Structure to design on (345 residues):
């Protein structure tokens, strides 16, 4: 069972990373994360939006309403400069964690 | 095509956000449901089945409402936990223990039940003491705990924990502390230990716990039903 702290950390990293490529709305964000991780990371609506709102409050991302070609309003999120700054050390932390885990014999055989 | 905004508005009724902000959240979540549904329909699902799958993304609407509210208002989890669990728990604990102390000092004598009683020694340890007025007052205290936790948006688990909180220290004592003491301390009468444990569990955990739940559980059901009917009305 993955702990809540680890889940939250990976989820935030996934959102920041996916937004690095450009602004996206919630549904598309979830779809691309699922696609790019081959289904390993899957966001439900209930998990995604509270996290997006929290990240927005922290100033890591910013949402703005845009009108899609179908005429429907969608809230697109983009990385803020604070979010961009946050992404690098976050990636570093996770990379170090995975490297450390790989060094453990038991984990690498798991 | 389903009115997703109406569905989400109904499910998130009572969310304490500014009207504009609430409207934006509802519109955004509705758009997400709409897209999920459209995608599933494109994959060949019927609209009804797609809507069901889309809605299954949210297991607990109440929890989602709480998490959105907390994220939007910068309220940290700690202060939520205080309002939803610790404060109602403290109220039920203080009220029930305060009342027990008052009844022990000023109230009628407790009912006593014992084992192997004879005419000379009617009660042989362990004796069971039942403070009837206290037990009768506990449902009200349980209902109060449920109301306070529910009003703060507590989950069902938080509500029920607040309701039975006054008996939890006793439970910990009887389940953990007493056996440990019995093992370590030679002066304890081991021949009556197991019976004392069950008597204590009944008198201080099971009976008051049931009394607290007798008030707290119906209160929780009533308050959730009222919330549900509010949603239906706002639909």
């Amino acid at each position: 069972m993955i702990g809540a702290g680890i889940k939250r950390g990976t989820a935030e990293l996934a959102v920041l990373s996916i937004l690095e490529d450009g602004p996206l709305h919630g549904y598309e964000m979830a779809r691309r994360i699922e696609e790019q991780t081959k289904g390993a990371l899957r966001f439900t609506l209930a998990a995604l939006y509270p996290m997006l709102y929290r990240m927005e409050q922290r100033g890591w991302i910013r949402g703005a309403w845009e009108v899609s070609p179908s005429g429907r309003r969608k809230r697109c999120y983009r990385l803020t400069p604070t979010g961009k700054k946050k992404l690098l050390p976050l990636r570093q932390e996770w990379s170090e964690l995975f490297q450390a885990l790989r060094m453990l014999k038991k984990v690498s055989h798991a | 095509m389903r009115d997703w905004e109406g569905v989400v508005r109904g499910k998130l009724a009572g969310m304490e956000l500014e009207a504009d902000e609430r409207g934006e959240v509802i519109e955004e979540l509705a758009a997400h449901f709409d897209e999920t549904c459209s995608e599933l329909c494109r994959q060949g699902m019927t609209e009804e089945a797609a809507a069901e799958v889309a809605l299954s993304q949210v297991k607990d609407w109440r929890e989602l409402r709480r998490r959105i509210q907390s994220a939007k208002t910068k309220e940290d989890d700690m202060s939520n936990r205080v309002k939803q669990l610790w404060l109602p728990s403290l109220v039920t604990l203080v009220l029930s223990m305060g009342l027990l102390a008052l009844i022990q000092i000023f109230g009628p004598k407790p009912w006593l039940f014992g084992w192997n009683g004879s005419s000379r020694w009617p009660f042989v340890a362990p004796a069971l003491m039942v403070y009837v007025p206290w037990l009768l007052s506990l449902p009200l205290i349980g209902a109060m705990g449920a109301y306070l936790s529910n009003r703060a948006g507590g989950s069902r688990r938080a509500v029920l924990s607040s309701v039975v909180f006054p008996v939890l220290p006793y439970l910990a004592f009887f389940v953990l502390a007493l056996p440990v003491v019995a093992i370590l301390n030679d002066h304890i009468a081991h021949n009556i230990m197991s019976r004392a444990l069950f008597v204590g569990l009944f008198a201080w955990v099971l009976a008051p716990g049931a009394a607290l739940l007798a008030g707290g559980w119906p209160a929780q059901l009533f308050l959730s039903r009222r919330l549900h009917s509010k949603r239906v009305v706002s639909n």
